[in-house]
Amino acid sequence: MKKLCTMFALLLVAMLFVSIDIAAQDFRATVVGRITDQAGAAVPGAQVAITNTETNQLTRIVSNEEGEYVITALQPGTYRLEIEQRGFKRFVQAFTEGLSEDSSLVARVKYNGGGL
User: Fold this and answer.
1) Domain 29-108, what architecture?
2) CA distance 71 to 31
3) Rounded mean pLDDT, 24-31
4) What does the domain layout of the chain look like in residue ranges?
């Protein structure tokens, strides 16, 4: 009986450590995107800003020569993505990022008036 009680106590301690480890995990997500014009051509050098609308945390990056961008380490929440490039209309999109999810967004920006 004493051996059974000892094993049960050890099992409880082990379960406690497992639950602490699970609670301590930091869920982060990545947003990957590509910015194109209406014809499907890449839009390089665009200013990309993503804001967590719950915390107002802002991250800014610039799209690469293929119009691609990668934003990492996003906590779960509601976000607003804004893309700006001279000669194009401003692009704004809201979305919700879930636990440990990764998102892929294609932003098609429109020419502003007569183009560049």
Assistant:
1) Sandwich (2.60)
2) 5
3) 70
4) 29-108
